[in-house]
């Protein structure tokens, strides 16, 4: 995940912002679906299965050859399992928190990435990460209103309201950070398109297993729920399709830091679509988190 050597084009920048908008809208659509009978596992099955089919189709059209080493055969399913858990946890957070706050808590994943790198591969965090960590945490504390000042509920009341959602979002961040580290060290030499296809297949299987354990699919109970389910599937799948078909031609990696503005888009969309709003001090915290994470991603690495 090296920073690009030169500034990206205006077209590439606009494309990255479009992807961030789609991903933010995907989570808002998911909340609409959750509000009308859909459960988390059902949403992940639909989203992951359709996306996997699209990506596999693209691989077939492009004639990509697939060859795995013994290490890849061990690690790719593990990475897919982690992303499956991450998907379930993040949607669980979106179902319980204002969408933007769920995504902001998830945006702490760079901290988790540094932690896992240190624990598993003995890599010391870069100085930039050490500087950014307290800034990200401060911004998150403001955004989540951890002392309940903005809500007027007090710390106990606020955590009773947001505690479960925050726990799911942080679990999503932790598993995603672990998946990134394992991918870098154990599967970094696998074609990114192939890696993402296997990941989506595994994520869908994890969600399908969850659906089976809970007794079956929980489908929408109103037209708005069907619209939300269709929208989240379309937006997620389309965003990934753009990543595979457009970004490589523009010379931009799919995980560019510019896409970390997703919570900002989600904040606006959730206000427009769901009527969700947060206090001004929480908006300030959100901007601090997004700014710090983007700065980390855009820094030049030696």
UniProtKB/TrEMBL annotation:
InterPro entries tied to this protein: EamA_dom (IPR000620), EmrE-like (IPR037185)
Domain EamA: residue ranges: 15-143, 165-295
Signal peptide interval: none
Protein's UniProt keywords contain Ion transport: no
Protein name in UniProt: DMT family transporter
Gene Ontology CC, one term: membrane
Membrane-spanning residues: 40-64, 76-94, 100-121, 128-150, 162-182, 194-213, 225-245, 257-274, 280-298
Pfam families (alphabetical): EamA
SUPFAM superfamilies: Multidrug resistance efflux transporter EmrE
UniProt KW keywords: Membrane, Transmembrane, Transmembrane helix
